[in-house]
Design a protein that fits this description.
This protein is 46% helix and 7% strand. The longest helix has 29 residues, at 394-422. By secondary structure, the protein is α/β, with parallel strands linked by helices. Helix 3 (57-80) packs antiparallel against helix 4 (91-111), helix 9 runs parallel beside helix 11 and helix 15 runs parallel beside helix 17 (394-422). The model is unreliable at 138-155 (pLDDT under 50). It contains 19 helices and nine strands. The strands form two sheets. It has a seven-stranded mixed sheet with strand order 2-7-6-1-5-3-4. Strands 8-9 form a two-stranded antiparallel sheet. It has helices at residues 7-22, 29-54, 57-80, 91-111, 116-132, 138-145, 185-190, 197-206, 221-228, 236-241, 249-256, 260-265, 298-305, 309-320, 326-340, 385-389, 394-422, 451-455, 479-488; strands at 174-179, 208-210, 270-274, 288-290, 351-357, 428-433, 459-462, 500-501, 511-512. The chain has two domains: 7-141, no CATH class; 146-516, Alkaline Phosphatase, subunit A.
Amino acid sequence: MSKLILHPFLFAVFPALFLFSFNLGHVSTEQMLVPVYLITIVVLAGWLIFQRKYKDKYRSAMATSFFLILFFSYGHLFDLLPSEPIPLRQHWLFLVAWGLLFFIGLRYIKNTAANLQQINSGLNITAIALIVTPFLGNTFVQSTSLDLATDAHAGILPPIQTRHLATPDKRPDIYYIVLDAYARADILQNIFDHDNSPFLNFLQDKGFSIASKSRANYNQTWLALSSSLNLTYLNPLVGTYGIQDRNRTPLKYLIQNNTVVPFLKKHGYKFVSFQSGQSFTNMETADISMPARKDINEFNVTLLSSTPLPGFFYEMGRLFGKTTNAYQAHRDRINYAFDHLPDLAGKETPIFVFAHILAPHPPFVFGPDGEPIDPDRRYWIGDGSAFFDKGGTMEEYLRNYTGEVKYLNKRLKETVERILAKSKEPPVIIIQSDHGSRLELDWRDVNNTNFQEAFSILSAFYLPNTSVQVPEGISPVNTFRFIFNTYFGTKYDLLEDRSYYSGWEEPYNFQEVTDKVT
């Protein structure tokens, strides 16, 4: 162990491996392997540079590991800095301190008279212990081996009703716009002191029906979209597959291989999906992906946010008058969706457009007029108590959630008007939230959670050429049952609208809270 030099490579792959194991089912193995491959190349290059400097394999390996430890701890240490009363949480200041510490460390490595083989042995043992940690739980093994490719739908999802169904003469374009964590009007009024009636009046004037008592079926996006896009509740998942802990692989599969898309494709629809920045809703089965380029995924953003690179580029951007960081990428993604949702309207082939827009979910990146907001901490999309754990405040949530809702309303108005103006035939437009706001949601304590807030959602339907009334309490599990019955002649029963709470660490530990949500 004292002669082998393993630790630079193990320290290099540990951050990606740990992040992958901590986010089971969120990301694919491919997403992890790409940064691991790039980091390994950087380590080899760095080791060669230090080898030329020190002419000693142990010193060069120590210098490489020291650099990696500093490199991947930057973001975590930056989060610990206070922003008040002394504003130390500034990248330029911490980058200077980080550089000085690195220089001092290299001087020590060059001049130390300590037993280098003993230090090398200790670093090897430490690195091996870190690498083994993610494999200790059987959930990691389960998440990488679970295969739902052949029978995920068996006994869980309703059969697609296409037999004996004639394709209707008129097939309206269908837009499913999912606004993440957009609260219902009464919640916006009671908790955020925001009157949303001007926006709802605009929608009603345009012909939308507002489901004024709509509520979510689940309080997490993964669960909510798996349910709405498959027209059913997910509770059988637990019994059928015995799924436990945080393994979200089945949910990603159900979202990517849902019931809605093949039904519409059999009626001649093209599937258009907008990149959300979240791998589980970046639809791999889409005929058209918007934008066409591959979006940087949340795994790489999170991994990079632990390094000095975002801070360095942020300061360079400020110096040259153009700020580029993860928050700007988040803003660009949201604005891109609103800018381009109407682009395919009016084409000959009917389209089904799916857009999961991560707003007004934290991080809050827009003011009420679209002005940019950059929180003074690492990029993070946690909500509820996780938002406060990362340094967010109650005042910030109240102010910036409301401001972002105001901006979204402006963009939605423009987008709806453009879609309606460009469409040759009136389209179906569904504007619906997956779950409510989560100012008063505590992931650790269900008794400290406001279910009314967490489950009350915006739900608006533009339904042309029909007199069918939208149920005022419709929940997302019934959205496409209702749409398919109305426009394609299916006979799906509308399910009872029910709501289930589950914690982040135990997504399948469902607790019915229907009686606590009105």
